[in-house]
Specification:
This protein is mainly α and about 325 residues long. The protein is built from 16 helices and no strands. It has 2 domains: about 110 residues, no CATH class; about 180 residues, Up-down Bundle (Growth Hormone, Chain: A), CATH 1.20.1250. Helix 2 runs antiparallel to helix 3, helix 8 runs antiparallel to helix 12 and helix 9 packs parallel to helix 11. The protein is globular, with a radius of gyration of 20 Å.
């Protein structure tokens, strides 16, 4: 969180390709270090270094994808989410398979390090659009002051709030899902694991559906409609009795809410008019807010119970309905 704003600002220069490739090399190195770590301190250090390196490698790759086709940002973000959802499904299976075969998680880290290298080479060879600020040599070249200026922009703030609101029925709910089913729903730990798998699969299904929906449906309208639907689905998930009906409800909810992040993120990139590195920097500044969501739920749960505390997450779709306009203007075809 400390380094990523600086990485984002530096990305809106001719050095972006070098930053992305350097991030990929460091990711591969830290995966090896984590997999071979002799003590926990080495593992922890590798993970801490991996975080900003992944920001340079992954977040700036996303920014470059947004720059390649400004008019297709929403559809490309939906494709990005499908790729991430595949990883969410395959990753745990890969880890479980490695443990079952060799009884060690370490092999997975080394294999992923090797798998990262072809991606680094592909990134080096790929054509990367020149950031607009570098191409035009104008006053839009991002500087540290540009972060403050962006945070005063009403449209930027709109989509930053939408991203954080969407996270309530995203990562915040996922963090408590298995615990809720076991402690409140009376399920076994295995059923709780199935619920997490169902949520991951729902993201894949919802992302694939979003790729098609963005061809004919405005993204802002999608956010409003899906937020309204989730106001019915989420209470149904909390109120329906029995673990299996709850899993079914949360799967449908996951499909409906899968597009919240890609649409809001695409609109954030569009609101900054081609300064995609600045978009990465601005969104990283609000990342600490997401850390407060589970703390808030946990605090209420200690007083009133988890069933009551999870009702707080209903504020997510309510905020989306408040901040997302009925039809947000698409960026100009610079955009």
């Amino acid at each position: 969180m400390v380094l990523e704003p600086a990485i984002g600002l530096a990305a809106d220069t001719r050095h972006r390709r070098l930053i992305v490739i350097g991030g990929g090399v460091v990711v591969a190195a830290t995966l090896v270090a984590a997999g071979l770590a002799p003590v926990f301190a080495v593992f922890l250090a590798a993970e801490c270094l991996m975080a900003p390196a992944a920001g340079a490698f992954v977040s700036l790759s996303q920014a470059s994808l947004m720059d390649r086709a400004p008019a297709e940002r929403e559809r490309n973000m939906a494709r990005w989410m499908v790729a991430g959802s595949i990883g969410n499904v395959v990753g745990p299976l890969l880890l479980a398979g490695a443990v079952a075969v060799s009884r060690s998680w370490r092999d997975v880290f080394v294999v992923l390090a090797v798998a990262t290298l072809p991606l680094v080479v592909a990134g080096w060879r790929a054509h990367a659009p020149v950031p607009r600020s570098e191409e035009q040599h104008d006053e839009h070249r991002p500087r540290p002051a540009a972060l403050l200026a962006a945070l005063r922009d009403r449209e930027v703030l709109r989509w930053l709030v939408a991203l954080e609101a969407g996270d309530l029925l995203g990562d915040a709910l996922l963090g408590f899902l298995a615990l809720y089913l076991v402690d409140v729903g009376g399920a076994t730990a295995g059923v709780g694991g199935i619920a997490v798998a169902a949520w991951s699969a729902a993201g894949l299904v919802g992302g694939a559906a979003l790729v098609r929906l963005t061809r004919s449906m405005d993204g802002a309208r999608y956010l409003r409609v899906s937020a309204a639907v989730s106001l019915v689905l989420y209470p149904a998930f909390l109120l329906v009795p029995g673990p299996l009906p709850k899993i079914a409800a949360v799967f449908v909810l996951g499909v409906v809410t899968a597009g919240w992040y890609p649409i809001a993120q695409a609109r954030l990139f569009g609101s900054l008019h081609g300064r995609s590195g600045l978009a990465v920097a601005v969104s990283s500044l609000t990342a600490p807010i997401g850390l407060l969501h589970p703390l808030l739920v946990a605090g209420v749960a200690t007083v009133a119970g988890l069933q009551t505390a999870l009702w707080l997450l209903l504020t997510g779709p309510l905020v989306l309905l408040l901040v997302v306009p009925r039809r947000a203007a698409r960026p100009a075809s610079e955009a």
